[in-house]
């Protein structure tokens, strides 16, 4: 098993850039992203976060609530969610407690 513990393969430039971009995000946004139900890129999350902050006059809690609403809207547009609603089933469960 020793060979499996090491690799000479590095991260691609895109992966390194995404990691650096994620690390540069504000802490409240990083915490929110860690619990997000959708896979957000650092760039799109930052764009949405800046708009949410602007709309909410810099209030972090209100901006986080707007990010939650935005994610819910995107989930509602998902084909599986729409199919479940058409069949009379509940939408997927949010296990993050939000």
Automatic annotation (TrEMBL):
Residue span of region Disordered: 78-98
Source organism per UniProt: Jannaschia seohaensis
One Pfam family, short name: DUF6525
Protein name (record): Uncharacterized protein
């Amino acid at each position: 098993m020793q060979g499996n513990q090491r690799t000479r393969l590095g991260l691609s430039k895109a992966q390194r850039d995404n990691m650096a971009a994620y690390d540069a995000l504000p802490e409240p946004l990083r915490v929110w992203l860690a619990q997000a139900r959708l896979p957000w890129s650092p760039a799109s999350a930052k764009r949405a976060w800046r708009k949410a902050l602007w709309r909410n006059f810099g209030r972090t809690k209100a901006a986080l609530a707007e990010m939650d609403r935005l994610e819910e809207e995107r989930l509602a547009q998902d084909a599986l969610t729409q199919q479940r609603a058409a069949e009379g089933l509940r939408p997927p469960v949010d296990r993050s407690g939000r």
